[in-house]
């Protein structure tokens, strides 16, 4: 953290090269901590080094956990750190809105496209079902969601749903397909898709009618914000189970489907 000093200002230059677009994407579910500061500092520095654009995105999807006061605090804290962005919830921009809670129409459109393409199925497994499946011996990594055992993946009733509400929606990952990509910081990364491999059918929409992080972040990075480099903490990659497949930085089935081209860049979680 030696380079982290509020007296040094990270202000992207005017007339920045269009091709590089990086983002800061904090969730207003608490105060920023030193790990966030480091990740955001690196993201800001990279944007400057590449004469690029830096975007601030407020990831306030979860109405139960997000608070307006934390959103205000994160902007204050980032400014205090000396980080400056040129598009965000506070200053607007061409790809707004920049708060995920205001972007539901975009996520719904993506859900419809994926449903129509046969990529999704409604999952009615209870938390208890999933918890029991998680105790299977090959599920050592349970950072986030356990690998889904695939109980509902053969359901064919997706087209009958006009709206996602009422079921958990999962993306059918191609079993056994290798996912490989080059990470700017970590080098070559490889995962195998499938419920018996590195990650299973991950959530794209929650039963309580909230789009899942995995869907929202890809939609925002690709379809709307045109993010070209996604900096993230390494945990979201090593989690693999649910962190990787929807992560916009991975060349995974969802990002292929959505046409993502963001370059991944992972840093160890502090
Ligand atoms: Zn299920």
Question: What this model shows, in words?
Answer:
The chain is of the alpha/beta class and 270 residues long. It has 2 domains: 16-102, Rossmann fold (3-Layer(aba) Sandwich); 103-270, Rossmann fold, CATH 3.40.50. It has 8 helices and 9 strands. It has helices spanning 34-49, 68-81, 104-116, 127-134, 213-224, 235-238, 243-246, 253-258, and strands at 21-24, 53-56, 120-123, 168-171, 178-183, 187-192, 203-205, 229-233, 263-267. The strands form 4 sheets. Strands 3-4-7 form a 3-stranded antiparallel beta sheet. Strands 1-2 form a two-stranded parallel sheet. Strand 5 and strand 6 form a beta hairpin. The protein is globular, with a radius of gyration of 18 Å. Mean pLDDT is 76; it is low at 1-17, 136-143 and 233-253. It binds zinc ion.
What are the defining features of this structure?
270 residues; Rossmann fold; three-stranded antiparallel β-sheet; 9 strands; 29% helix; binds zinc ion
Topology, element by element:
Elements lengths: L20 E4 L9 H16 L3 E4 L11 H14 L22 H13 L3 E4 L3 H8 L33 E4 L6 E6 L3 E6 L10 E3 L7 H12 L4 E5 L1 H4 L4 H4 L6 H6 L4 E5 L3
Parallel strand pairs: 1-2, 8-9
Antiparallel strand pairs: 3-4, 4-7, 5-6
The protein binds zinc ion.
In short:
The chain is an alpha/beta fold. It is built from eight helices and nine strands.
Chain-averaged pLDDT: 76
- Indicate the percent of residues in helices: 25-40%
Strand count:
9
Count every helix, treating DSSP H or I runs of 4 or more residues as helices.
8
Largest sheet composition: 3 strands, antiparallel
Strand content: 15-25%
- Integer count of domains: 2
Shape: globular
Sequence of secondary-structure elements = EHEHHEHEEEEHEHHHE
What is the annotated CATH architecture of the largest domain?
Answer: 3-Layer(aba) Sandwich
From the N-terminal CA to the C-terminal CA, the straight-line distance is 10 Å
Look up the CATH topology of the largest domain: Rossmann fold
Structural class: alpha/beta
Q: What small ligands are held by the chains?
A: zinc ion
Name the poorly predicted regions: 1-17, 136-143, 233-253
How large, in whole angstroms, is the Cα Rg? 18 Å
CATH class call of the largest domain: Alpha Beta
């Amino acid at each position: 953290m030696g380079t982290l000093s509020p007296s040094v200002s990270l202000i992207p230059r005017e007339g920045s090269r269009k091709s590089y677009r990086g983002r800061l994407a904090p969730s207003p579910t608490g105060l920023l901590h030193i790990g966030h500061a480091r990740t955001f500092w690196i993201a800001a520095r990279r944007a400057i080094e590449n004469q690029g654009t830096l975007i601030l995105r407020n990831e306030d999807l979860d109405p139960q956990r997000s608070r307006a006061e934390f959103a205000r605090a994160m902007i204050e804290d980032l400014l205090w750190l000396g980080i400056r962005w040129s598009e965000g919830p506070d200053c607007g921009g061409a790809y707004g809105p920049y708060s995920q809670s205001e972007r539901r129409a975009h996520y719904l459109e993506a859900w419809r496209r994926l449903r129509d393409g046969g990529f999704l199925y409604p999952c009615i497994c209870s938390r208890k079902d999933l918890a029991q499946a998680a105790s299977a011996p090959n599920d050592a990594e349970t950072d986030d969601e356990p690998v889904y055992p695939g109980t509902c993946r053969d359901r064919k009733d997706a087209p009958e749903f006009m709206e996602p509400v009422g079921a958990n929606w999962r993306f059918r990952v191609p079993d056994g397909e290798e996912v490989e990509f080059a990470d700017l910081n970590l080098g070559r990364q490889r995962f195998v898709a499938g419920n018996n491999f590195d990650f299973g059918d991950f959530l794209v929409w929650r039963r309580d009618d909230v789009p899942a992080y995995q869907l929202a972040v890809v939609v925002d990075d690709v379809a709307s914000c045109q993010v070209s480099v996604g900096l993230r903490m390494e945990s979201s990659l090593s989690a693999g189970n649910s962190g990787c497949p929807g992560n916009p930085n991975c060349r995974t089935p969802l990002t292929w489907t959505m046409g993502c081209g963001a370059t991944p860049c992972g840093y160890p979680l502090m």
